[in-house]
Write a structure and sequence with these properties.
Layout (H helix, E strand, L loop, with lengths): L1 H16 L2 H6 L6 H4 L6 E7 L4 E7 L10 H29 L5
Antiparallel strand pairs: 1-2
Length: about 100
Amino acid sequence: MRTLKRELLKRVGELAAGWNAGAQKLGLKLPAWIARHGSKRSSASVIHTFRVFRIILTNAVKYVTNVEGYVRRIQSAINIQGWKMQRKAEFLLTRALRAPGWK
């Protein structure tokens, strides 16, 4: 059982490490149990022009497609962060308008 537990925990770290390149590119610090697996199974690119802002992150861990509900989980995380960004943008706009006296 201990051997199985260690193997499963290792796989969890490797799976999460599939996002290491993206975290590094975006300037985020990941926990040691993820970062220690390196970023060889991940890639990231950021495209920022006048008309386009795009972040492309790739998790190339070989068994990522075997994880049940993985795509749904990733989409959920993206949606949550998108909603947070939307709320923050609305807050900043409201604050900027109130500063000169707008209501």
